[in-house]
Amino acid sequence: MDPVDPSTDSGDGASVGWVTTPPHSSKLSSLEEPMLDAAVKSPGVNRMLVLLCAVLGVIAIGCAVGLGVVAHENKNQSPSQSSQQATIPTGWLRMFALSDVHLDILYSETASALGKPPCQNDSALPTFRDTAPFGRVGCDASQKLFESALASLQRLDQTEKADVILVTGDKSGHNLYNSLNGSSNHGRVVLEAQAQFTETLLRYFPARRHILTMGNNDVPYHWQIPTASWYQQLWSYWAPLILCSDCEAGRYEQRVDENEFNGTFLRGGYYKAQVSDGLVMLVVNSLYWTSYAWATTKPFRNDIPEVANEQMQWLTSELKLARAAGRKVVVVGHVPPGLDPYRPNLTKVGLVRQFWFDNYTQSFLQLVGETYSDVLACNVFAHLHKDDFHVHSYNSDNSTRSATLLLSSISPVYENNPAYRVMFFNPAGWHLADYTQYWTDLVQDNTRQSSALWKKQYTFSEAYPGAQRIDSARLQQIWQDIMSLVDSFTWQKFMQNRQIYTANTLNSYSRDHLYCIAYSANVTAYADCRKAHPYEARS
Questions:
Q1: How far apart are CA 511 and CA 537, in angstroms?
Q2: What's the sign of the alpha-carbon dihedral 110, 114, 120, 126?
Q3: DSSP β-bridge partners for residue 376
Q4: What would the pLDDT profile of 401-419 be if each residue is shown by its tens digit?
Q5: In the prediction, which pLDDT does 506 show?
Q6: Sheet containing 431-440: which strands, arranged edge to edge?
Q7: Distance (Å, rounded) from C-alpha 103 to C-alpha 171?
């Protein structure tokens, strides 16, 4: 297919491609020859008439070719991809979901991402003469960008209220740890960002149930597992959002037991939230299961493996209780299981690094993908700043897999435009039925200066036609379509969605690599997958 121009995107899941008309044949037709002869003999009005006819002929040929190209493109699209709009029943549970805001409370509208610290210091070189109130690609989110996203959600909320608001980790900016010198200031700016973040969220949605998860930048230092005193500080900011004692009465019975919440959150940053009579969200702090966090936390503390094991036991117990109560579960966290697609494992050339320790990866996937697969609605994680979905398995025959959706980020630091999504759960079985993703173009926003324009990017059931149900079987079928050598439509649509319409959408990524990342839970499985799919780049 021809490359897609994001500026011509219709916003409804269908995009307009560049169509180049091939040059028509230089051979003159039987009609063109006498006209040319007449023009030579009579250079006056006749010549003008002939030239006009010739131009009209070229236009007619170009239109015919253009229609042929469009017809060729459209034959790769089902009617639902080209015209049909997804219908979202009003009775479905509606969840606003955003992640990786990385609010930089020291952001400067003129500072460059190349400065030290990046994007923060007006005097650091290089700087820009133009201002970027809504942030720059390569920088974390400004306050104006964050508020523009919330204002956009507020407008959507007027049409149909969200039942719950999910933020899957990393509320603080990346570079706040080094913004103040001295041990007495260690983590203080991070806490200031947390306070500003929650105050802003409460201002836009003051009486709504929120679900907040721990991220690797919601801690005193990057990837550092907090102590009890840090959780106590975060509790003072987050508790009003999560416990929501003044929440408006909604359509569904919602409950967060304060005693349970205090016990598990203050112990390790994890907790349970009932968002309806049939749906429970189990919020995990996956930092305890990651090798990165164990390596970064100095000095290492004995309570870290204790809490890691306690959390896995808690997850097992809660899944068992959900089954007994006839409820479905959404497991929510920040750092996902599986592999880091961006960082190679330096000890094993050609392999990627695994996020979680192998034993926790195996225990988790056996719980959600096998033992309690009938209870799981889906897993929702983030951290990679990209729209993606994985279907991991840990049993030897790969017969059962769990569906994990990865949220895009508000922060544009990793060369992506900001995005959030609205997720819909069907009360008839409480499965994840559909979602719609919204995005904004930072270049255009900063050109306008006064406002950011958030618009629909795509709806899942329109981009990937099928029944309105998102589960592991559905995601596996989509991945097979992505890998198809016959039709690249699904691959190109997937990459446009994944990158949120930024440069290097296709050529910088290996289809085989992303496929193996989506299917492989550990480095051994990834190595085996790459033997079957060895190509480094394929478009």
A1: 6
A2: negative
A3: 329
A4: 889 999 999 999 988 899 9
A5: 45
A6: 210-212, 164-167, 93-98, 419-426, 431-440, 454-459
A7: 6
How far is C-alpha 336 from the geometric centre of its chain's CA atoms?
13
If you ran DSSP here, which 8-state letter would residue 147 be given? H
The distance of Cα 171 from the centroid of its chain, to the nearest Å, equals 15
Q: In a 10 Å sphere around its CB, with 0-12 CB exposed, 13-18 middle and 19+ buried, how is residue 222 labelled? A: middle
Instruction: Count CA atoms within 13 Å of residue 371 on its CB side.
Output: 13
Q: What does the alpha-carbon distance between residue 375 and residue 352 come to, in Å, rounded to a whole number?
A: 31
Helix 32-41 / helix 45-74 crossing angle, nearest 10 deg: 150
Length of the chain: 539
Model confidence over 11-22: pLDDT tens digits? 333 332 222 223
* 538 burial via Cβ count (<10 Å: 0-12, 13-18, 19+): middle
The share of the chain scoring above pLDDT 70, in percent, equals 75
Estimate to the nearest angstrom the gap between the alpha carbon of 218 and the chain centroid: 19
Please tell me what DSSP assigns to residue 174.
Answer: T
Strand ranges, E, within 71-187: 93-98, 164-167
* Tokens found for residue 509: 């990524």
Per-run averaged pLDDT (10 residues), the chain, 539 residues? 32 29 31 33 42 44 38 36 61 95 91 75 59 88 96 93 94 76 64 95 93 94 91 94 82 88 96 95 97 90 95 98 97 96 62 91 94 96 95 75 94 92 96 96 86 93 89 93 84 85 57 91 89 67
Are residues 440 and 126 in contact, defined by beta-carbon separation less than 8 angstroms? Answer: no
CA 385 – CA 408 distance, rounded (Å): 5
pTM across the whole model? 0.81
Range list of H helices, 367-483: 442-448, 460-463, 472-482
Query: In Å, how far are 67, 135, 148, 460 from 131, measured between CA atoms?
Result: 43, 9, 17, 35
Other Cβ atoms less than 10 A from the Cβ of 328: the count is 20
Asked if residue 2 lies in contact with residue 19, where contact means CB atoms within 8 angstroms, the answer is yes
Helix (H) or strand (E) holding 420: strand 419-426
Question: How distant, in Å, are the alpha carbons of 119, 122, 171, 232 from that of 132?
Answer: 10, 13, 21, 36
The strand pair at 402-406 and 376-381 is best described as parallel
Residues 98 and 166: their CA atoms lie apart, in Å, by: 6
**CA 494 remoteness from chain centre:** 12
Query: In terms of DSSP bridges, do strands 352-354 and 376-381 run parallel, antiparallel, or are they unpaired?
Result: unpaired
